[in-house]
Specification:
Layout (H helix, E strand, L loop, with lengths): L1 E5 L5 E2 L5 E3 L1 H11 L4 E8 L10 E2 L5 E8 L3 H6 L1 H10 L6 E6 L4 H8 L4 E5 L14 H22 L3 E4 L2 H7 L6 E3 L22 E6 L8 H13 L4 E6 L8 H11 L6 E5 L5 H9 L2 E4 L8 H8 L4 E4 L4 H4 L7 E3 L4 H13 L1 H16 L3 H17 L8 H11 L1
Helix pairs in contact: 1-14, 3-4, 4-5, 7-12, 10-13
Length: about 400
């Protein structure tokens, strides 16, 4: 399989000539490359503020990088879409298929440019879902909404002729009328080295709560800080570790600090900044006691799989595909989005109910073991090879995986 790949997350070469990209993308590409004869990555070069996040050195020797130019603003990238399309066409003869991860600004244009090359889409979110939480004035949000609708129409148009893989039940239902070749999957960053089995947590004080990911408002971080304050007032000795980064120009971290200070828990909310996937991030997971996902809207965060692999009980808002892939009080405790009280209650139950907590740890770990990169990339390539041989609807491999998972619960 000679596979092309595009996503808007950038890459670069360091002074030693090594190809670097963010860890979550790098791990996926390295795993994908083990299943390919050649993997050609059509990726942008980074902005200066993105360079520190390009923490992963690609290890596979069969990966090529085609530089699509700077990872500029969306309007600038759309204006240069012709350049990116030409880069795809130049490599037509050397590829068996093109994999486009989305949503992404150039996905519709590159899917069209790839014809007659077989195209597969790997869709992991929805631009429209998070617009309301952007730190932008209303007029700009409406412009972004109009563009997102236009982009989604192009994505649906591409899905009519592509093999389309989605990582959420909602995306599956949304695309079902448009894509005759639709497969539901999972996305993950888990490697075997990530697994850290343990029978229980919450054995020492303070109890450490952990959130890892982008520090954006739609992630429910302000209600989470309020929940910490409520837990402290109720006599619980807890600390919240926030691991991640804010978007360019977003002052959400300063606002969170002020919120914690106003509720007298500034010493109990600790900001660790960006931490690369690997030993640094793993150390924080290992030192945590409870993982909390408080998002208002979500597909399915890969950080939940990471937490379960590190033996953590999970408290999560029942949004997106979380209730589709997890079970309340079996593999996670579900709470209401936007409700500090519900968050505090769910966390307190995890702290106080040892048998429930141990069950969450045990069954979450078993579920994560079914969702490694090795398993998911093998399934992706199998589906893609079937698509290339005979473009026909492909049965979802998820149902079989779910049966395996349930037998372990």
């Amino acid at each position: 399989m000679r596979l092309g790949f595009h996503y808007h997350v950038p890459a670069t070469r360091d002074r030693d000539g090594r190809l670097r990209t963010p860890g979550y993308q790098g791990r996926f590409l390295d795993a994908l490359a083990t299943r390919c004869e050649r993997l050609v990555c059509f990726l942008h070069s980074p902005r200066p503020d993105e360079i520190p996040h390009l923490d992963h050195v690609l290890e596979a020797s069969n990966i090529d990088w085609v530089n699509l130019g700077p990872h500029a603003s969306v309007p600038r990238r759309l204006l240069s879409a012709g350049h990116s399309a030409r880069a795809i066409r130049k490599r037509h003869g050397g590829l068996d298929a093109l994999l486009l991860r989305g949503p992404s600004p150039l996905l519709p244009a590159l899917a069209a440019a790839a014809k007659p090359l077989p195209v597969a889409l790997l869709l992991v979110g929805d631009y429209l879902a998070s617009i309301e939480h952007l730190p932008q004035p209303r007029w700009r949000k409406e412009l972004i909404r109009c563009w997102a609708l236009w982009n989604r129409r192009g994505q649906r148009r591409a899905a009519r002729e592509a093999l389309t893989l989605v990582n959420s039940r909602r995306l599956y239902q949304d695309l079902k009328p448009y894509s005759p070749h639709l497969v539901e999957t999972r996305t993950t960053t888990l490697c075997e080295a990530d697994f850290f089995p343990r029978p229980d947590t919450c054995r020492q004080r303070p109890v450490r709560l952990l959130y890892s990911g982008r520090l954006h408002r739609e992630k429910g971080l302000f209600p989470l800080v309020e929940a910490v304050a409520a837990l402290v007032r109720a006599g619980h000795d807890v600390v919240l570790d926030l691991v991640g980064w804010a978007g360019p120009g977003d002052n959400v971290i300063d606002e969170l600090r002020r919120s914690a200070e106003a509720q007298a828990v500034s010493s109990r909310v600790v900001f660790h900044g960006f931490q690369p996937i690997g030993p640094a991030l793993s150390t924080l997971y290992k030192s945590a006691d409870v993982y909390v996902s408080a998002a208002f809207e979500e597909s399915f965060p890969r950080s939940i799989w990471e937490a379960m692999a590190h033996g953590l009980p999970v408290v999560a808002t029942a949004v997106g595909s979380i209730p589709d892939y997890l079970r309340d009080r079996e593999t996670a405790i579900f709470v209401d989005p936007g409700s500090p009280g519900s968050l505090a209650d769910g966390i307190a139950e995890t702290l106080c109910e040892q048998h429930l907590r141990q069950k969450l740890v045990r069954q979450g770990f078993a579920l994560a073991q079914q969702n490694t990169l090795a398993k998911r990339t093998a399934e992706l390539i199998t589906a893609l090879e079937s698509w290339i041989r005979q473009p026909a609807p492909i049965p979802s491999f998820v149902s079989a995986a779910n049966v395996i998972c349930e037998r372990n619960l």
